[in-house]
Amino acid sequence: WVKLAVTRARATGDPAVFWLDETRAHDANLIAKVKQYLPEHDTEGLDIRILAPEEATRLSVERIRRGENTISVTGNVLRDYLTDLFPILELGTSAKMLSVVPLMAGGGLFETGAGGSAPKHVQQLVKENYLRWDSLGEFFALVPSLEQYAEATGNTRAKVLADTLDRATATFLNEDKSPTRRVGGIDNRGSHFYLSLYWAQELARQTDDADLAKAFAQLAETLAGSEQQIVDELNAVQGEPADIGGYYQPDPAKAAAVMRPSATWNQALAALS
């Protein structure tokens, strides 16, 4: 737990705050553990603090108002609360959050907020071929997943994928390409198109890996040039019932046909592979 805090602080350069209250007996014991284990790690140049929840909240909010990130180091119960509270305060939804949980064998669990109520969304998809699920949290989770893979294996190409995806999701947020709430606007499929467009563009313009830039240059150009046509093809299927072949166990071919209705986009992706 302490190692993860130091690792995240080192990776991001952001302050890491342990949310612990020395006046609570349980927290006092944890503080002793934190102080015991911190010296075992390289913390030089890092900003690592232990604050009671009230002070930690105040600091985090002050930094949020300045557009700055803060790493909250907590137990799982408080983590669950904070990853609902802060995104709701900041963005009006907890779908756009990410929490990182280390696994015993060295892997990582990258948990995101739900993109909506799945049963309701499937009901709407089957009724009017419109999928409102917001995958932004899943897009966010891919970045640290690729980063961890790059760090664990030394794969520099994975790091390029992570960095470019991070910038692509920033563009996605700025352009507000999450699903709209009703038929006629882009849904989950449109969101995935825009992520693929922005990611391909970032990969094409980066200079860290020339082969990757070359591989994605044509896709980026094709998607940008066909943007309106692809969006029109994706939106044209909305408003009519969709057959995915089942609820708990959809038919793969039927589900694929429903989720990939744009021939132009499919051809562009096929050309890449």
Model description:
The chain is mainly α. It has a domain at 117-272. Helices cover 60% and strands 8% of the residues. The protein is built from 12 helices and 5 strands. The protein has a 3-stranded parallel sheet. The chain has a two-stranded antiparallel sheet with strand order 4-5. Helix 6 runs antiparallel to helix 7, helix 8 (188-205) packs antiparallel against helix 10 (227-236) and helix 9 (210-225) packs antiparallel against helix 12. The two termini are 40 Å apart.
Task: Map the helices and strands.
Elements: H1 2-12, E1 16-19, H2 25-37, E2 48-51, H3 53-65, E3 71-73, H4 76-91, E4 98-102, E5 108-112, H5 118-128, H6 136-153, H7 156-175, H8 188-205, H9 210-225, H10 227-236, H11 252-259, H12 263-272
Parallel strand pairs: 1-2, 1-3
Antiparallel strand pairs: 4-5
Helix pairs in contact: 6-7, 7-8, 8-9, 8-10, 9-12
Short description:
With 273 residues, the chain is mostly helical. It contains 12 helices and 5 strands. The protein has a domain at 117-272.
Throw out a few tags for this protein.
273 residues; 3-stranded parallel β-sheet; two-stranded antiparallel sheet; 5 strands; globular
How much helicity do the residues have?
55-70%
The separation of the N and C termini measures 40 Å
Shape: globular
Total count of strands:
5
